[in-house]
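Sample A.
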Amino acid sequence: MTPGWSDADRIRADVRPPEFPAVDFPITSYGATPGNATAGIAAAVAACSESGGGRVVVPPGVWYTKAIRLRSQVELHISEGATLRFSTDPADYLPVVETRYEGLEVLNHSPMIYANGCTDIAITGTGTLDGQASSDNWWSWFHECDEEFKRLREQSWFGIPLQDRAVGHRLRSSFVQPFNCTNVLIEGVTVVRSPFWQLHPVLCRNVTIRDVVIDSQGPNNDGIDLESCRSVVISGCTIDAGDDCIALKSGREADGLRVNVPTEDILIEDCTLRVKYGAITLGSDLTGGIRNVYVRDCRIDGPYFALYIKTNAVRGGFVENVYLRDLTVAKVLKEVVQCNFHRGEGEAGPLIPSVRNVELRGVKVEQARNALLFRGYRHARIEDVRLVDCDFTVDQPSTVQHTVLGFDNVTVNGRPIKDVHQIR
């Protein structure tokens, strides 16, 4: 049976944030000082986990730290007026850890906050996580990693084991990454000056991200990336990102085929999504597939696209059952929705993408360059795209090729649209 909006209510009911014992472990009790909080935080996390769980508390003030590794049953609480300010020295994020870089498995520098294989973890509070990234440190790596990333892609295609994937030292790590974790909560914090992707759960189940403020516009600074995750609720977040605001992914190319874990059962609601590329993006690392995505009651202002589905014959994968409802779009710089199988490498690959059952309902767009850009393949159409009760104000005609598209009460520039040829 094809899911509908009732399935969003199921996701909302099923996803529950973890709960922790009401016991505090102040980092100052474990030797943390403002100038060097690393060892004190690690000791507090260890004591908290080993005693059965609780809350590791960062008090008001600015606290300088290296990489933080969470453990099960630990809530890291950033108090009001507190800032965790992270080192910009790459040596402070060694030894390397199991992670993903743009959908490929790799041993890389640790994310600034990392957990692997944990149950019941959280980052909460109204304080700030500051990665201190700038063009003088992490962001400069954006221009220095092409050869390393090319080598990593080759290692993936040839099936080189993870432990042998040594690619160098210019692949940036994510800011916050729970990896293969269950019952995850990220709530209330403000994230600034991220080195790379900002909140990046990978292979996680039962994830809640709510009331987070993200303001980091460095190169490729996605706001929230969910990669091969299941059962996730994102709500009440405000995101200004240097790339996609919320991106759903599921691995890339050979690694995506081998691991083969989709991202599924995702609810996004009551968020404000601003610059830069896609407000809601599916891909481009989606070889493992994406299904059952619900977006409602969000405000979008300033990115290139409101919904951006990115794949081609090199990435492949499937996207199915995507529902957007009651969105207010003040401005997008390009299309409201783009899904173009000819982007990037286009048809020059062995994997045939599949996109089906995508619905926009109650979407009002005040300003956009175009309403739609849909370009499937002649041998692989984009199937069952529906626009219902939508109103677009646009500057240019849309592009629709090899796509099955339906309209119900749709207006463009005040004119009712009843046929796909009218919107071109």
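Sample B.
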Amino acid sequence: MGLTAEQLRASLDSLGGIEPGFAAALAAAGYPEPRIREPGYATLLRTIVGQQVSVAAARSIWGRVEAAVGDAEDPAAILATSEEALRAAGLSRQKIAYARSLAEEVASGRLDFAALPRDDEEAIAALTRVKGIGRWSAEIYLLFAEGRADIWPAGDLAVQIAVGRILGHGARPTERQVRALAEPWRPHRGAAAIFAWHHYGFEKTRAKDGPELSPL
């Protein structure tokens, strides 16, 4: 399960002591709500469904996928669902291939969520061996479903934007810069990411513009 409200508060209070920009942003935006997902196949499948679409679109498509396959918890269900039905639910041909690849890996036992390595980088490597699962999807899964406290999705656009604003940068930092900036925040980078999405949404609401970039 993901980081609890208590874990988030403790980590963000620690971050505020390390980085004054976080302390000021936390005072303005407040603490984020936990982002908790059930560990396992369905959560990673939902991450595939949500790739490169807005949060609202992802929720809508996921609802239709659930209706089409019947049991989103069972990898055999999506393997038994026709491509036409999955396309009608809103999945592209590429996402159908990714979803079926994931289902096959889980059904065969080659991917066992209960046996992922405890080392974060090794766990990311295990997940990204699945077709269609990139580093971002693996990081989101490990943060939201397993509550790994130091996961840092530095490639996420909203994280980059928020970190730049929190630290007072004139331009959005690159992924490489965001990774370097966050090194002093270990082992609290998972909370920093969740707060970055929260802060991005907070500023978006105040400005009443900007794309919805927060992950599922």
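B remarks: The domain at 5-35+151-207 is CATH 1.10.1670.40 (Endonuclease Iii, domain 2). Residues 56 and 91 are 15 Å apart (CA to CA).
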